[in-house]
Amino acid sequence: SLVPTKEDMRRSGFPMLRGTAVGSIVGPLPGAGLALASFFAYVIEKRVSKRPEKFGTGVVEGIAGPEAANNAAAQTAFIPTFALGIPGTTTTAILLGAMMVHGIVPGPQFMRENYDMFWAIVASFWIGNLFLLILNIPFIGLWVRLLKIPYHMLFPVIVCMICIGVYSVNSSVFDVFLLLGFGAIGYTMRILGFEPAPMLMGFVLGPLLEENFRRAMLLSGGDFFELFTGPINLTMLSIFVLVVGWTMLSRMRRAAAESHVSMEE
User: Fold this and answer.
1) Residues 86, 30: Cα–Cα separation, whole Å
2) Distance CA 239, CA 244 (A)
3) What would the DSSP string read from start to end of 45-92?
4) Measuring CA to CA, which residue among 84, 87, 35, 83 is closest to residue 202?
5) I need a surface site. Which of 20, 77, 96, 133 has the fewest CB within 10 A?
6) pTM > 0.70: yes or no
């Protein structure tokens, strides 16, 4: 019953193509995330559908489009990671941090200096998707049962496995205590409502920012205002200001709407 029928394949063909296009565009945007690509694809499919009232009931168009966008965004998020050293998602940020720990610096010369690793990663995309297809369909019942495991039983196992993995790298107890310290910081951030992804990206991009800022200062003779000249610099700064301003304005409008609704109640 999990195998798509001919009708399902016919109805999901164009949604998958549209979702792939959306994911390919959103995926390379730093910090956009996979959820944003899936959301955009879902909205597009609902807009173009002849039966939008059926969305939310499990119609194949509302599943195929967002899933195709999610998969496309997951792959294309590696483009800015390898080409510019800018992670597209939290997963690529973790991968970027691991590569920098081993002395591999992503950037324009990454494919030339580490072509064997680059093509191995590209090949892993194909192999990984193939294995996901093979494993997900026959074992879908098993994965659903795993979700039924109580969290209070699953959490200690996860923590134990993480500690074993950290200790096995250098056989150092200090690394385990360092892990617990960062875990406490992350838990505190979660309680206070802070997102861990920006901190992770800052940790990864910090050394690259310092290195390139120092290089820019040397090339400009110490003139800080040189960073704000030129069409490329001004374009990037303008985009940054617009995105930050739009985000703040959206949050202010949302907060104002929520306060207005609460006052009416």
Assistant:
1) 7
2) 9
3) HHHH-S-GGGTTTT-SHHHHHHHHHHHHHHHHTHHHHHHTS--SSHHH
4) 87
5) 133
6) no
